[in-house]
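Entry 14. Ran structure prediction on the chain below.
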Amino acid sequence: MINYVGTMSIGAAVPVALTASAALSATIGPAIAELTAKLAGLGKLLLQVTVTPPTAALAAKVAAAGQVAAGLAATAAAGLPGVSLQATGLLAIIAEIELQLVALNLGLEFVGELSGLLATAGVCVHTYEGRADRFGSEFTAAFASGIPSGGGPATTVNAIVLATTSSATWIAMQGVFRT
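Output, structure tokens:
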């Protein structure tokens, strides 16, 4: 028996694709924002350098620096640990985040394209349950006056027919397609 489900968008005919598209969009957007914030923070850390113009007190600072240098030399002789900033390590992390952002932006582009496709209307959805040898004649009878969304019997129609004899496969198909 043929059952006319309705004329709808591709997304309505394949609701699982519509749900997946929305979930991807909801996930990718915040991930991009988070990585962008991390990238900005690392960029600030990498670029934090203080430059001051020379002043009258420069001579005193140079003398003080000499005392600090002497103290550092004594510390180094004592074998105490030092602190350093590895710019190359930060640059590698920044490069990795930039690659992740490129991938996420490509994913977001894909979701945009997919959403556009899923919004395309005009899909006439029918289901069939019955004997295989009557499938053709029942569809011929159902479309004898054209399809429900318009066009007479001589109108060119494009279709995809998915058929199964397995009840488990049919249940899975019902989870993916509008039936």
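The chain has one domain: 2-48+87-176. Will compare against last week's run tomorrow.
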